[in-house]
């Protein structure tokens, strides 16, 4: 058995994702496990369709098992997101983490990861942060100082930056896990235009939001496109951010500063900036314009705002994920789960109600987040999905 | 000076309302003051268009002054709604309250009011309430027992029921205020079909919600129709309850029972019923179906749910309205205000920011309610309306 893991969002699943799964098979993977964000993503926004639909896409297109990243980590900064993913894979256990990157060489990426590690302890970094520079920019400048321009350029690419966090998490949590870095082929993470058979997930989302569903078929595997089309037809997709904007603004317009301060990363007076802006803004975009600063980037601010909406406490990131929750699985996936059950791991279950009965705080937050997500779908839906949706099992 | 007052919602202002204002003039009113619900109404729902627009309709169609009923009272049970209206008029001061009713004779209405007064102290009433009968039905049966079928039939009509509460409030708060009861002409309060030149406000709302704005012109004074059309064109109208449903459900889906218990009329375990239903329901209508019972009527439950959304504490109804807030005014209206200022009344102001600075709890709730209302309009809008909208002043 060669058990390989992938950390993903599949928002939505596209040709580039299918390519990565195929490459992993070519490199010898006999079992492929994916840990995937749930209904909210690292961008600090609702996913374009619910997690069961996205997990099914992955299973139909080459994965053997899909495990959920609990919501506090799914919409956390890259470092916490990566650590949660690596931790979940280490519980299965997985021998090798496979990830895409813009960098052509794993050794360059490892060198950049070491430079990042040093940068965070470098006096320059502290000075820049004190000057109000954002964490990302301060880190990039410190890496330049330590390891030169090439390393600084490497960490600037979004997939490299995430890859570096994976490597760092492996170093901390499970040094025996190997890494396969697959250079991205075709469209980059944020590319606005497709390239060959590949288009970025953000391009696909923008097409969907413009009502161009049929055009997505060109960039997605056939099965994934059909599953997505079905979700859109059922009104289970979030094809516009309008409901999200309204629900977010409503929750902020009735909040008090002392409430907001309990939530992740809402500190240093940012609670007052959020509250003031929530009354002046009429959309998420407007809200971000009014709250983001040099120090609080738009991405960070979006995650902050989502933490307020989903009521994610600051403390929730201090401990690792509390369980392995199965979203989709085939017979090979079941073999991976059996390996996990034989070891002394966190609880493994396809039944969400069990997790909830066991009193896991992350399960409570997950259920609440999904109850809100249901209201953001095109056709506002009843909640309780966590208790009524079954994982997608292929026998 | 003959100063006459009216308590209203004007949701929207129609020919029946114009008829009442004309009748009051015929009966000798030289100055006409209206106290009007703000952005949320006694039905427990957002008004079809914002209060400044509705106040302007009233002024253009015959009123001299429009004063706002603070939100805790505007969406309160009939008794508290009526008491707040009478209290505000008594501060101006107003000699006579004019109201519409289905009853042809004021003396019959006064007799029914006395029967209601007795019914509330009657052992039969307590017994029925203990048996789980709703307040409205228990009272009706007790009135039948005390004063016979005619009185019971009188109080069953919605405008009579409200009129009785006005008479009772006058008795308690300002016995020197006279009452003019104007028998309704044409369509009844809840009539589904128009009758002659008159259509009920609920008929007009349903027409608007079906997208039939042009048809409303038949039942509304020309100026009022133009003002409403302008608000609809600007996206300032709430022509669908969809946003309201989503915001309400979102606020409930993330609430805890101990939070809900703080809000008006949420007690006796109803908080658990609301929370459970908020996860199962996908709309306001669905939510009402799941939460209303024999004891908690749909109307009462709607007000309960609105109190949860607007965070109106139980205690807020214990004291009377804290201020006279001007929404619209012409020179005759100003004469009324001067009379109020000469006496020792609650503060009178067209500037909301002053009320807010003075620390009035009702002003805080009003601002928050309007910030939510702005998100329910067709085009979700920025908030802070309370601080940026000026009263409509005709010189």
Can you describe what's shown?
The structure is a homodimer of 395-residue chains. By secondary structure, chain A is α/β, with parallel strands linked by helices. Chain A has 2 domains: 3-102 and 179-233 and 320-393, HUPs (Rossmann fold, 3-Layer(aba) Sandwich), CATH 3.40.50; 242-316, no CATH class. Helix content of chain A is 52%, strand content 10%. Chain A is built from 20 helices and 8 strands. In chain A, strands 1, 2, 3, 4, 5, 6, 7 and 8 form an 8-stranded mixed beta sheet that branches. The model of chain A has no long low-confidence stretch (mean pLDDT 93). The A-B interface holds A 242-243, 245-247, 249-251, 253-254, 278-283, 286, 311, 368, 371-372, 374-375, 379-384 and B 242-243, 245-247, 249-251, 253-254, 278-283, 286, 311, 368, 371-372, 374-375, 379-384.
Count of helical regions of chain A: 20
CATH architecture of the largest domain in chain A: 3-Layer(aba) Sandwich
The CATH homologous superfamily of the largest domain in chain A is termed: HUPs
Secondary structure class of chain A reads alpha/beta
Name the helicity range of chain A: 40-55%
Identify the most extensive interface between protein chains. A-B, 29 and 29 residues
- Strands of chain A, count: 8
Radius of gyration of chain A: 20 Å
Number of domains of chain A: 2
Shape of chain A: globular
CATH T-level fold name of the largest domain in chain A: Rossmann fold
Estimate the mean pLDDT confidence of chain A. 93
Largest sheet of chain A: 8 strands, mixed
The oligomeric status of these chains comes to homodimer
Query: Can you write the helix and strand succession of chain A as a string?
Result: EHEHEHHEHHHHHEHHHHHHHEHEHHHE
Span from first to last CA of chain A?
19 Å
């Amino acid at each position: 058995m060669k058990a390989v893991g992938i950390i993903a969002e599949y928002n939505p699943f596209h040709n580039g994702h299918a390519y990565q799964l195929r490459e992993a098979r070519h490199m010898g993977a006999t079992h492929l496990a994916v840990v995937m964000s749930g209904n909210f993503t690292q961008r600090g926004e609702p996913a374009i369709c619910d997690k069961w639909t996205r997990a099914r896409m992955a299973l139909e297109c080459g994965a053997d098992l899909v495990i959920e990243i609990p919501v506090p980590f799914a919409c956390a900064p890259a470092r916490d997101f990566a650590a949660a993913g690596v931790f979940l894979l280490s519980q299965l256990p997985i021998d090798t983490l496979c990830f895409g990157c813009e960098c052509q060489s794993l050794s360059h990426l490892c060198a950049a990861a070491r430079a990042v590690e040093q940068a965070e302890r470098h006096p320059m970094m502290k000075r820049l942060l004190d000057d109000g520079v954002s964490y990302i920019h301060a880190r990039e400048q410190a890496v330049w100082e330590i390891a030169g321009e090439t390393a600084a350029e490497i960490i600037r690419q979004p997939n490299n930056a995430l890859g570096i966090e994976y490597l760092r998490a492996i170093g901390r949590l499970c040094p025996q896990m190997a890494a396969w870095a697959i250079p991205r082929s075709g469209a980059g993470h944020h590319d606005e235009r497709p390239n060959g058979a590949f288009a970025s997930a953000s391009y696909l989302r923008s097409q969907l939001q413009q009502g161009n569903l049929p055009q997505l078929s060109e960039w997605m595997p056939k099965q994934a496109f059909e599953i997505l089309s079905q979700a859109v037809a059922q009104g289970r997709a979030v094809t516009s951010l309008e409901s999200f904007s309204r629900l977010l603004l409503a929750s902020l317009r009735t909040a008090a500063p002392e409430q907001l301060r309990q939530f992740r990363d809402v500190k240093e007076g940012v609670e007052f900036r959020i509250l003031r802006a929530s009354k002046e803004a009429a959309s998420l975009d407007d809200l971000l314009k009014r709250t983001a600063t040099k120090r609080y980037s738009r991405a960070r601010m979006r995650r902050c705002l989502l933490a307020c909406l989903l009521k994610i406490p600051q403390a929730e990131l201090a401990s690792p994920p509390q369980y392995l929750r199965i979203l989709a699985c085939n017979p090979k996936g079941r073999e991976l789960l059996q390996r996990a059950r034989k070891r002394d791991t966190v609880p493994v279950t396809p039944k969400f109600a069990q997790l909830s009965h066991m009193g896991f705080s992350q399960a409570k937050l997950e259920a609440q987040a999904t109850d809100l997500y249901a209201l953001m779908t095109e056709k506002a839906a009843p909640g309780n999905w966590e208790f009524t949706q079954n994982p997608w099992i292929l026998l």
